[in-house]
Amino acid sequence: MLPHLHPLLIISILRQLRRLGGVGLVLLGVADNSVIPLTGSMDVLTIYLAARHRQTWQYYALMATLGAVIGGYITYALARKGGKQAMERKLSKPRAAKVYATFERWGFWAVAVPALLPPPFPFVPFLIAAGALQYSREKFLGALTLGRLVRYSIVAGLGALYGTHIVRFFSRYYEPALTILIGLAVLGGVLTLIQYLRWKTSSSVPARP
Predict the structure, then answer these.
(1) CA 157 from chain center: how many Å?
(2) Counting beta carbons within 10 angstroms of the beta carbon of residue 36, is it exposed (0 to 12), middle (13 to 18) or buried (19 or more)?
(3) What is residue 29's DSSP assignment?
(4) What is the C-alpha separation between 204 and 106, in angstroms, rounded?
(5) Helical pair 57-91 and 124-132, crossing angle rounded to 10 deg
(6) Which residue of 23, 60, 115, 182 is surrounded by the most CB atoms within 10 Å?
(7) What is this structure's pTM?
């Protein structure tokens, strides 16, 4: 079960991550892509850090990618243990068959393209599907790295390009923006918990012969 965090504690954690710079991006990326999805938080923190340090924006793009890949692999590895049977119990065989067909047709790009898309596009289901379908680890990591690297390079590049305006905005509206992020994080955490409980329940039901 996901822990309940007081909003003030979340604000404190995000501030600490901001102070940690690139390391904070890695930690946030691990949580956002595996344990507790924090909708939009990775993009916001990457933009902010790249705007504050415009000469080294590539570094923040790489650190955001590293965190996202580590977190994504954790989700993939956990889903890999359940296999196709758990996924079929969760989605029903007809729907699971569509997912199989998507991976058979697109393979590498079935992970790379969703990894590139910004929120609110749901990405975690694709991580779970790749693991449940026993998709190649090497291809999965390659696709995930490519998609996330392109995405965060664009995000960090925009932060560096419009650095002055972005820093001014955050200095003026930091608290309201953080409050919105917390609300999205709580919503994402609740939805993830519900989905996890459903998956756990369906996985515990023996498959019919």
Answers:
(1) 20
(2) buried
(3) H
(4) 31
(5) 60
(6) 60
(7) 0.70
Residue 1 lies in a domain: no
pLDDT tens sequence across 100-149: 777 778 889 989 998 998 776 778 778 888 888 888 999 999 999 999 99
The domain containing residue 145 runs over which residues? 7-203
**How does 69-105 read in b/e, with b if 16+ C-beta sit within 10 Å?**
bbbbbbbbeebbebeeebbbbbbeeeebeebbeebee
In a domain, 66, yes or no: yes
Prior bond of 7 cis (ω within 30°): no
Select from 149, 152, 148, 168 the least CA-distant residue to 51: 168
- One-letter amino acid at 57 equals W
